[in-house]
Amino acid sequence: DDNAGQIHYNHVDNEMDIRTGGVKRLNISSSGGTQGEHTVVGIGNAQPTKTLTVGGDISASGELYVDGDLFVSKSVIGPSGTTTSSISAALTVVGDISSSGDVYVGDDLFVKGDKLQFLSATNYLTDASGHNRITITDGGTMTFSDEAGNATMYLRADQNIGIRNAYATKE
């Protein structure tokens, strides 16, 4: 086919495309995008809706820098070769996760392992209203509180249990 490979410019739509095998592989448009003045590029996508729209897998040998929000749907983040066969979550990370700020979980939090570790001197588990319901200190004391924030039970490091009494002297 004489037209299998082409560089084509359309003056009416003000866009350029590159075709191989008779299929549009790269599309550059100065009139599309999320706003009329944006130039958009589509790789493997003939009708890009964002500044760069890629149809298919993307491979990179360097860093990925995002200055803005990152939207990911049903993904695995992990070493090459990580499989998705047993993943049921929208985002699965293979390896450690580190955060310099707060981490919010919109639903249940499941921990698979033998330890949930708190790293502050005093740690709080709060209810939906923000009331401290369980307080854990690095000294080994756990305090359970009612809805009003009143301490109702103490499990102390010396193995004493206090009901409404933090200084129980009997085991």
At a glance:
With 171 residues, the protein is an all-beta fold. Helices cover 0% and strands 32% of the residues. The strands form three sheets. The chain has a five-stranded mixed β-sheet with strand order 1-2-3-4-5, with no helix packed on it. It has a five-stranded antiparallel β-sheet with strand order 8-9-10-11-12, with no helix packed on it. A two-stranded parallel ribbon has the order 6-7.
What this model shows, in words?
- The chain is 0% helix and 32% strand.
- It has no helices and twelve strands.
- Strands 1-2-3-4-5 form a five-stranded mixed β-sheet, with no helix packed on it.
- The termini are far apart.
- 5% of the residues are buried.
Give me the secondary-structure topology.
Blueprint: E1 6-10, E2 15-20, E3 23-29, E4 40-43, E5 52-54, E6 75-77, E7 91-93, E8 122-126, E9 132-137, E10 142-145, E11 151-155, E12 161-163
List keywords for this structure.
171 residues; mainly beta; five-stranded mixed β-sheet; five-stranded antiparallel β-sheet; 0% helix; rod-shaped
